[in-house]
Amino acid sequence: xxxxxxxxxxxxxxxxEQRAAALEKTWAPDGTFVDPSFEATGYDELSTMIGTAQxxxxxxxxxxxxxxxxHHDRIRWTWELAPEGQPAVAGGTDIVTVAADGRISxxxxxxxxxxxx
Length: 117
Prior knowledge:
CATH topology: Nuclear Transport Factor 2, Chain: A
Number of domains: 1
Distance between the termini: 33 Å
CATH architecture: Roll
Radius of gyration: 13 Å
Mean pLDDT: 96
Order of helices and strands: HHEEHEEEE
């Protein structure tokens, strides 16, 4: 599923300008993200949130696990966060709402496992 690939590419993009361009292509302008750790609305907040997460887990990458499942305007996918070639340190499930134009309008994330803070 191409939207999932674009989504994870954004989470792994460290160049702020390239991430901004990808966000505009993939997310609706007023798109939202919420999980137990973060909440963001719009391109600037989404980009800042992703940069913050990258700072918390330097060198780790988000990858999709399994196959995304979709119906109506919703998609569910699972993910892991791990160093290249190493076991995952975190993982979860995202529920995505897709806008009429095919871009993401909202993501609600659930953490299945994560490092203790």
